[in-house]
Specification:
TIM Barrel
Length: about 270
């Protein structure tokens, strides 16, 4: 059985056929998804989808959504975590972090929301799901100031040194569709060389499509669109990881599944182990 450690099942891209998406995932033996919320408007949806389908969820404010957020949202987030802290399906604070790739997102405001959400994770003794995009050193600096109970560095794309620092702080590193591209040399190198216990798998569906769903700029200009990513793609992504590491599919499922449960301990009750 597979665990997709990062899937936005509550995204509007799935509104038309969410049941079918879940059915395809289950047919592919993807039996557990972690649904991270991205802002206050999504907290109820993430929780409702997790309960409807028997999955897990996280509550947080994504760095790309802080411009629509105010300090009152942090108060509301604390209230939500307090209210649902005993919900076995609430497994982390997330998706939180920093994004210095996308232009126009105030860096100071991102840092404020990141710091305050780390404080909430520490207060409630919960792991976090981190958004890492050209921000690894700044995220690590925040974790140095406000240690938390580990978690997952989602879509990790940093250096080997940064990877080791996250691991030393109790984090697993998320790998998904990007590692299926042969040109993703650094990510593929990390996926091949990190310790077995460092890696978790994710789709980030509907985003970060693997190479077989991706369309080039020329193809898009010709009217072809990149296909929506889905959790059912996880085993095929896993096969790419298995090739890099010399693992069978069964080994890949067992190792990465155990790693997700270690990073998000409440999953051990939901998904066994």
């Amino acid at each position: 059985m597979w665990i997709d450690s990062h899937c936005h099942l509550d995204a509007p891209e799935f509104d038309a056929d969410r049941d079918a998406v879940v059915q395809r995932a289950r047919a592919a033996d993807v039996r557990m998804l972690v649904i991270p919320a991205v802002g206050a408007l999504d907290w109820d949806s993430a929780r409702e989808q997790a309960h409807r389908y028997g999955f897990a969820y996280a509550l947080g404010i994504h760095p790309l959504y802080v411009m629509q957020a105010g300090e009152q949202d942090l108060t509301l987030l604390a209230e939500q975590i307090e209210r649902y802290r005993d919900d076995p399906r609430l497994v982390a604070v997330g998706e939180i972090g920093l994004d210095f790739f996308v232009q126009g997102i105030d860096a100071e405001k991102q840092q404020f929301f990141y710091t305050e959400q780390l404080k909430l994770a520490r207060r409630f003794e919960m792991p976090v799901i981190l958004h890492v995009r050209r921000s690894a050193d700044q995220l690590l600096a925040g974790l140095g100031r406000i240690p938390v109970a580990g978690g997952i560095a989602h879509a990790f794309n940093g250096s080997a040194q940064q990877a080791r620092r996250f691991v030393d702080l109790g984090f697993k590193l998320g790998f998904g569709g990007t590692l299926t591209f042969e040109r993703s040399l650094q990510i593929r190198r990390l996926a091949a060389e990190l310790a077995d216990t460092d890696l978790v798998l994710e789709t980030d569906a509907p985003d970060i499509p693997p190479h077989w769903l991706y369309k080039t700029a020329e193809q898009r200009a010709a009217g072809e669109s990149t296909a929506r990513n889905e959790p059912a793609e996880l085993p095929r992504i896993a096969a790419s990881l298995g090739v890099l590491r010399g693992w069978t599919l069964a080994q890949t499922a067992a190792i990465t599944g155990a790693n997700v449960r270690a990073a998000l301990p409440k999953l051990a009750v939901l998904h066994g182990g």
